[in-house]
Amino acid sequence: MLALVPLLLASLPLLLAARVHDAARDGDLAAVSEALRSGGTVSERDHLLYTPLHRVSDDGYVHIAEFLLAQGADVEARDANEATPLLLASGSGHVAVVELLLRHGARIDALDEYRMSALHYAAEEGHLDAIEALLRHRASTTITDEMGNTPAETARAWGHTQAAALLNGAMLPAALPKPKSNLSDEEGPDSTSPPAGQPRGIRKERRLPDNLMPEKLEL
Prior knowledge:
This is Ankyrin repeat domain-containing protein. By secondary structure, the protein is an all-alpha fold. The protein folds into two domains: 13-107, Serine Threonine Protein Phosphatase 5, Tetratricopeptide repeat (Alpha Horseshoe); 108-176, Ankyrin repeat-containing domain (Serine Threonine Protein Phosphatase 5, Tetratricopeptide repeat). It is built from ten helices and no strands. The protein is elongated and about 50 Å long. The N and C termini lie far apart (67 Å).
C-alpha cells in the first residue's frame, strides 16, 4: 500500500488540473473556485495547452473569466496554436468576454501561428458584434495571415458578406442586424457556439475554403 503513495502524489497535479478544467468547461464558478482552493492553479494546461481562461473565453463564461483574471490568470497565455484567449473569444463571438479581456490588457492584434488576429477569427465565423467591438478598439484591418489575406478577405472567402462589408467600411454598424442568440455571454455558449469540449479556435490542420486553398491562390 505504501508503494502506491509516490504514484498518488505524482498524479495529484494532473488530477487538480483536470478539476479546474472540468469546472471551467461546465461553467461552474463555485467548482472552479473550489478547485483552486484545493491546490489547482489558473495556469493549468490541458491537452490543447488551453489554460482555464482559454476555455471560458472560448465557451463564453464571462463571469468565470473575470474571476480567473482576478486570480492572476495570464491574459496573453498561448495555446497549442499560439492563440490567446482574446482570439478564441472573438472566434466564438463572445463580445462580453472580448471587452473584458481588452480591459485587462489583452493585445488586440496578437497573432497565432497562422498569423491570424482576433479580427481574422471573428471574420472567419462572421460574428458581426465581435467585429464591431474589435473595430471600436482599433484592431488592424490590414494585417494579413499566412495566406496573405486580410480579415475582410477572410470573411468574404467564408461567405460572410455582411462581415466583409463591415470590414471594408461599406456598411455602418448601426445598420447591421444583431446576430441571433439564445443565451447571453454571461449565461454561456450561444446557439452558434460549438458544444463544450469542441473548441472553435484550435486548428492544427487549418481548414480553408476552396478559394483559399494554396494551389488555387494566384501568385
